[in-house]
Specification:
This protein is of the alpha+beta class. Helix content is 38%, strand content 14%. It has 18 helices and 20 strands. Strand 1, helix 3 and strand 2 form a beta-alpha-beta unit. The two termini are 42 Å apart.
């Protein structure tokens, strides 16, 4: 099968509008006869479900949580990008497009990224109309802050709760359609297979997580919006329930999986403290607006801090190494996430880490508190030389911007981040890889669409901060409602899809067989035992830095671990009841396949780009070294029964509007 991205012809800035002018439409009367399944109700799924129902389609929406408002999008903190140029600092649609392609290390599809930048402006208007309480300046205008990898302020935010507020906006739109009967909501349901009829996605097999019942649901199209696969590492910033199952089941039915090795390590997370942890906590990248990142410049000071003999506040200014400001003077603390993460790892590997494990750096707000305090003192005609007054005024400003994040940090670490610098370290966060989709957001399965983090389309090898929420809402509110109509126009005479077809029988049999095996296996080790072992292999050999030897070993070790899992996992309880251990087992089984493909993809890509860093391919000063001649393509993998046997398909990335250059933030 040859990959066809279906990118429209014509100038970049006209592609989307010209495309919309010539697509097929479904009239309102016919929309009432068409069913669409939406799996996942985060920002991408929630906005898609609400918009499709508003248009008149009959929507069935599925989430494994007890409510759509608990989707993991709620955890996004820092903000959402849009090229409104409210700050008058030179932003534009083209600038957002350029920053996104550059931030992704020139491994994204131009047409999709430009469309994303183009519709970003509409997202803010949509959300304001829904009542999303974005931060505002004194005069009432929407406020913006800057994020990593850019030199403008284009990020709209609601303190450190932006994802939550945006999700509540989408959830309210969904509730309106649920009330009208246009959305049938299936809470506490998990998709365990996708059903293809005559090669088209026509339904799913889902498990009711409350009573264990296996259900068949049919539709004319299936939309997968189930987020990323960062939990393949076990420890990540993702919610414990976040998983790859829906996307992986579609992959096994024929949807190509693109760029699985493009996984983002976020630089500002609360460090690991021991083996007892089950997840990690993110500190928003927005903190890098005002926080300065440093480690002791002297080895003896770093050792003294680790041993508890010295406090960070006792380190003189001249004895601090603000290493991001030193290495990247143009961007400083606002370099992209992949660059900041590798720089932190380099300092800690060199012995300058500051917590007991040696894997932490400082994020310090003392300078910001003083700067804001003096500014406020001048505004209110107070004494800017009064240190106590300046501290109080500055702290109030910082608290107003980031207060809930500081509160969260203090509850977890038991230290006051206003007076003692935060400790941070990189952790697995976001996945740029995902199911391959064309310009219409359709996968290689006809009728199966993939939105948001579950697809690969918009970020290349690294995602800029505050762009995840932008992509999710762009896909759901402003892209899919057009593109899916062009496809569904052919189904206005199809009629309802029956669920007693042989294809549904086979898919349900497949699901029941897997569940029965896990329940009856009666092994000796828990699901978490295998998940943690997988996570350690992934972090040690497929993590922030990779090499051919480690990746080859990882593939073999994961394959062996998968074999052990099926022989020796123990799942207590029954399949006909609420059983979270069974839920985990089904998800980990998929991770044990994805992990091997992940390593295979990283091994084949003999270059460093964005979040994929091969130790064999770096510059003299430790920066990523791309190979545009041989690897300027999307790696889309076709399932062939075993991850090691997956077949590579390439979509060449053609850059007509941006020149491929070595990415530099210096």
């Amino acid at each position: 099968m040859k990959l066809d991205s279906k990118i429209p012809q014509g100038p970049l800035d006209k592609k989307w509008s010209e495309y919309k002018n010539h697509i097929k439409l479904v009239n309102p009367a016919n929309k009432r006869n068409i069913d669409v399944i939406v799996v996942g109700t985060g920002l991408a799924g929630g906005s898609a479900a609400a918009t499709l129902a508003e248009l008149g389609y009959n929507v069935k929406a599925f989430c494994y949580q007890d409510s759509p408002r608990r989707a993991h999008s709620i955890a996004a903190q820092g903000g959402i990008n849009a090229s409104k140029n409210y700050q008058g600092d030179g932003d534009s649609v083209y600038r957002l497009f350029y920053d996104t392609v550059k931030g992704g290390d020139y491994r994204a599809r131009e047409a999709n990224v430009y469309r994303l930048a183009e519709v970003s402006e509409n997202i803010i208007d949509q959300c304001v109309a829904q009542g999303v309480p974005f931060a505002r300046e004194y005069g009432g205008l929407l406020d913006n802050r800057s994020f990593g990898g850019v030199q403008v302020s284009r990020t709209f935010y609601a303190k450190g709760q932006t994802g939550q507020q945006l999700l509540l906006g989408a959830y309210s739109a969904m509730n309106r359609q649920i009330g009208r009967g246009k959305i049938q909501m299936y809470n506490r349901h998990e998709m365990l297979d996708i059903v293809l009829v005559d090669g088209k996605a026509r339904g799913i097999i889902a498990r009711n997580l409350i009573n264990g019942e296996i259900e068949r649901h049919s539709a004319h199209a299936v939309v997968i919006c189930t987020g990323g696969y960062g939990n393949v590492f076990f420890l990540s910033t993702n919610a414990m329930g976040s998983n790859v199952t829906a996307a992986w089941k579609a992959h096994k039915r024929g949807a190509y999986f693109a760029n699985p090795c493009y996984t983002q390590i976020h630089p500002t997370c609360i460090p690991v403290t021991g083996d007892h942890q089950s997840k990690l906590t993110l500190m928003s990248e927005s903190l890098r607006n005002d926080g300065r990142i440093w480690v002791p410049a002297k080895m003896e000071d770093a050792v003294a801090i680790r041993e508890g003999r010295l406090k960070p506040t006792q380190i003189a200014e001249e004895d601090r190494d603000y290493y991001l400001e030193r290495r990247y003077p143009s961007f400083g603390n606002l370099v992209p996430r992949d660059v900041a993460s590798r720089a932190a790892k380099e300092r800690c590997d060199a012995g300058y880490g500051v917590n007991a494990t040696g894997e932490a750096v400082y994020l310090d707000f003392a300078s910001a508190i003083e700067r804001y305090g003096k500014e406020q003192a001048r505004i209110h005609h107070m004494d800017e030389n009064d240190a106590k007054l300046v501290y109080k005024l500055g702290r109030d400003v910082v608290e107003n911007k980031y207060g809930n994040l500081f509160q969260m940090y203090e509850k977890i670490v038991d230290e006051d981040p206003y007076t003692t610098p935060m400790m941070i370290y990189p952790a697995v966060h976001y996945t740029m890889g995902g199911l391959w989709v064309d310009y219409n957001l359709m996968s290689t399965i006809e009728g199966c669409y993939v939105l948001g983090e579950a697809n690969f389309s918009d970020h290349g090898a690294n995602r800029l901060g505050a762009s995840a929420l932008m992509q999710g809402l762009a896909d759901g509110y402003f892209v899919l409602p057009y593109t899916i109509g062009d496809y569904l126009a052919n189904d206005i005479r199809t009629g309802a899809i029956p669920t007693d077809l042989p294809e549904f029988d086979a898919a349900e049999k497949n699901v029941r067989g897997m569940i029965d095996h896990l329940i009856s296996n009666n092994g000796t080790h828990s699901v978490d035992y295998f998940h943690k072992k997988l996570g350690k292999i992934m972090w040690d050999k497929v993590g922030m830095a990779r090499n051919a030897k480690g990746l080859t070993e990882a593939m073999a070790e994961i394959a062996q671990l998968r074999e052990e899992f099926y022989k020796d996992v123990k799942v207590s309880g029954t399949n006909e009841s609420f059983n979270q251990e069974l839920e985990k087992a089904l998800r980990v089984a998929d991770y044990l396949e994805l992990g091997e493909l992940f390593a295979k993809d990283a091994l084949h890509r003999e270059e460093s780009c964005g979040g994929h860093f091969r130790e064999e391919h770096q510059t003299e000063d430790g920066e990523a070294k791309r190979d545009d001649e041989n690897f300027a393509y999307v790696a889309a993998w076709e399932y062939k029964g075993n991850p090691s046997e997956a077949v590579l398909h390439k979509e060449d990335l053609v850059y007509e509007n941006i020149k491929l250059v070595t990415r530099s933030y210096k």
